[in-house]
Amino acid sequence: MSHKYLAFDIETAKVLPENINDLNSHRPLGITCSAIWCTDENKPEVFYSKTSDGSPAPQMSEQDLTSLIKYLKKKVNSGYTIITHNGLGFDFNILAEESNDFSTCRNLALQHVDMMFHFFCGKGFPISLNAAAEAIDLSKPTDIDGAIAPTLWKEEKYQKVLDYVAQDCRLTLDIAEKSEQKRRISWITQRGKKSYFELPSGWLTVEQASELPLPDTSWMDNPWPRSKFTKWLK
How far is CA 144 from the centre of its chain? Predict the structure, then answer.
């Protein structure tokens, strides 16, 4: 392994209507909890705020989010590379808004590896974490996803949400490490076939991936621009 990775993920607080097309129109979303899982650890660390009686709070406070950011920064300074799946367009974007620490979140986002963004910069379209997991015979739980996690938290099913956010970190780590070893990431296409995207230099940080040449998207009806993920950085 050329990197000592730290997988990072958040879960949001706001309960949203089903099948929404524009998540940003419902912001601010709040953050209920977060998890990190380091390459050299056999269990995750989870983060959430607590009420006066010690139970999990409805969402994380700005103070606790600031502490989380400082912890991430400390880990990076000690040699870890943060890795996410859509952390640029989602996790760090939301974290910056909820913590009011745009500058630090921006720097962390640029320095970290976002597997989906790297893939998107190379191919012109995104893939889901589950599509990459299934290609290496792993899968996310079927009874919970990010869309219903806010409802479960509101129903005080805290451990189920904490287990879910931790498992997403574990999946991210497994995919990152196996892909880097093979110098390619595999995924299951919408047609159910396995395909590959080459990683000749391993995973690239957001800053590095942004320098890749634009892929040919002439075959697509409405290709996404990279600014869909990066515009908040400006």
Answer: 16
Element (H, E) at 224: none
Under 8 Å between Cβ of 136 and 171? no
Q: Read off the CATH number of the domain in which 150 is found.
A: 3.30.420.10
- The structural domain count of the chain equals 1
Tokens encoding 221: 């009806």
> Domain range holding 223?
4-233
Q: What is the pLDDT of residue 167?
A: 94
Is residue 94 within 8 A of residue 29, CB to CB? The reply is yes
Name the pTM for this structure: 0.95
H-only helix segments in the chain: 62-77, 92-99, 102-111, 115-123, 129-134, 149-154, 158-182, 206-209, 227-230
* AA letter at 131: A
